[in-house]
Amino acid sequence: MHKNQRTRLILSVLLTLALNPKAFAAGSGGLRDETPDAGAFGMGSAFVGDASTPAAVYYNPAGMNQIKSLSITAGDIAIAPQASFKSAATGNNYTNDRKIYNIPDFYAVAPVNNKLSLGVGAGSYWGLGDKWGGNSPLRYATTAATLVVQDYMLAASYKVTDRWTVAVSLDNDWAVGNQTQKVNLSTYGLADGTVQIKQN
Predict the structure, then answer these.
(1) CB atoms < 10 A from the CB of 14, how many?
(2) Could you report the per-residue pLDDT of 76-104, keeping only the tens digit for each?
(3) Helix or strand or coil: residue 196?
């Protein structure tokens, strides 16, 4: 790569980041886990323009017509987040409990004829959790939290002409959240209380 090309590339990247601060963000406090298909994910989501595997159910249902026979893909991604910090007040180190979270995906596409294809899919693109325990300095914010989201998809694709395809997709999202935290009751001469919040 020539010096001028390298300089232009660096300036382009810096300009992109400067104009889009969210490029640094992991998304929603790190709870977004959009890994719906390993192959498509490896293409940096450019798979939207290809959409030639059952993952098209998620990325671009109009591409399902490229699949000529029943096709099924399934996968699973394991994530084990871990965080630690040192308390400025006590000097103690704290580490959250490490847990492995599995994020599965499943897609199937079945051509009905040479024009109509149907597809189903299931996955989870938000979630994970955290557990710090009841003795950490974070106990009044959270001691444990989990968010589980399941996404189910039904899609249909119809080839109108060799150049035009229309598609529709129905999504059903189901979510449940659970959080516990301590409540400081020392001003009343009592031990810490516990609050649990559940939502689905």
Answers:
(1) 10
(2) 888 887 888 888 888 888 888 878 888 88
(3) strand
Which secondary-structure segment (H or E) carries 91?
A: none
Structure tokens at 32: 């977004």
Give me 112's structure tokens.
Answer: 């009905």
Nearest to 55 by CA among 131, 102, 109, 1: 109
- Structure tokens that stand for 196 in this block: 């649990």
Residue 129's Cβ-side half-sphere holds a number of Cα atoms within 13 Å equal to 22
Q: Can you give the pTM of this predicted structure?
A: 0.71
- Tokens linked to 97: 């409990």
Pairing of strands 101-111, 71-79: antiparallel
Q: CA-CA distance, 143 to 94, in Å (whole number)?
A: 12
Residue 53 has pLDDT above 50, yes or no: yes
